[in-house]
Amino acid sequence: MTGKALLVFVCCAFLQPGAFAAPARSCNLDTLPPGILIDGRFEDWEETKPLAFNDEGLLKTLCLADDADYLFLKVELNRKINLQADNRITLYLDMDDDPNTGLRKGTLGAEAAFTFGERSGWVFSGEDTITIQYETLGLVTAPTMESTVFEIALAWAASEQEKALGFGTKPLRVLIADEAGEEATLTASYEPKRLPRPVRQAISLEKESPMHLRLVTHNVNRRHFHPEKRDAFSRVYQALQPDILLLQEAYDGTAREILDYFRMSIGAPLSGRWYAYKTGEEATVLISPFPASAVVPLGNSAAYILDLSEPYAGKLVLIALSMPCCGLDDARQAEADMIMAFIDNLKKGKTLEYIPVATPIILAGDANLVRKTEQYTTLTEGRIQDTLAYGPGTPPDWDGSPFRDLLPYHLQKPLSFTWRGKGFFPGRMDFFIYSDSVLEIGRN
Fold it and tell me: Cα separation of 341 and 296, whole Å?
């Protein structure tokens, strides 16, 4: 992952003293208000009827919804695409539902447009059109991988251009066109309600129980030693108080130097001593109160097998993800295959390392899951692609089921992206995937 190191992924795991076997629990969304969540899952759209349909062509249906902060769109397609590249699907916004203002597009007078595959657009201001990037519209999409369905959020007040055009203050019309062909468009009229989400309880960063272990994963993007970033890092780590801290792209410094640099921010270790490790081609760093009995490089990523101490027992397998970026689909798939083959062999006793049955397994960090979906299904379902090199693969959890994808949300917004930078839209690059048959998750 390149660009801005934006978000810190935080999770508390229920590691019960003396045992790990516990019933699995879904991610608790009680702290999130009802409404649309931009997460690449679409259950929250089930009660929203499409406002536009097509029987043929790429574009299939369009749904619209809104709240006080965002206009939400769900676009269904007839084939799988990557929304951020290799297409000319264009969104036109008639912000006042007046065909006589803006630039004419079909029956609309569009004040703004955005072509997703080109990752750029324009707004109409006076007699001029101004080129824009996603930030002007506050645009967020999901999923980041290929799909036949995408959900999109546009912030009502993301920029001065939007405010000047009165976006969200009047009835509007939306048109989505595939500019690569002459196919039918999706057009819908919509009157924003701008209803606030119900007031929710304050979200605490405290653990739900002192017995929980808090794992924090953070792609520091080479900036961990930058003097101007030190205060920001310190504030975040002091607020989160990680029990286990996992860093990616921490190229500069040894593991011990990085530990010493952040020691005052992360507080005292549970065991009375911090252990620090650094490995993998993308410089994953683990700071843990438990020693690692084995550290295994897995391409850019790495496996750490931790020996837990009182009040916990047994071992914890932590796969630190820092997979190849961007257009390196084949390399990313090869690393996903390698990781899942290692987990399968580890569980079957075919490696030098030993773990007891029902040892918790966590994959966390910067997976860079963009473009192809096969890498995601490999990491969650164990579907190895290169079976000649790595074997057939099996469902990875101890009960023969897939791993669970945690999918945490932002504290204050209905969004789930973990990266924001220039050029591409905000996306979900960082993941927390785990063996939910033996591990429960607390506050995240």
Answer: 13
Q: Are 287 and 244 in contact (CB under 8 A)?
A: yes
- The two tokens of residue 339 are 């990781």
pLDDT tens digit string along 47-61? Answer: 999 999 998 899 999
The Cα 66–Cα 35 span in angstroms is: 9
HEC string for 362-374: EEEEECCCCECCH
pTM of the model: 0.91
> What is 9-30+204-441's CATH topology?
Deoxyribonuclease I; Chain A (3.60.10)
| DSSP letter for each residue of 304-373 | EEEE--TTS-SEEEEEEEEPPPTT-HHHHHHHHHHHHHHHHHHHTT-SSS---TT--EEEEEE----B-S
CATH 3.30.70 fits 43-190, yes or no: no
Please report, for the chain, the start and end positions of each structural domain, with discontinuous segments joined by +: 9-30+204-441, 43-190
Q: Tell me the C-alpha distance between 12 and 20, whole Å.
A: 14
The per-residue pLDDT for range 172-229, each reduced to its tens digit, is 999 999 999 877 899 999 999 999 876 666 678 888 888 899 999 998 886 667 677 7
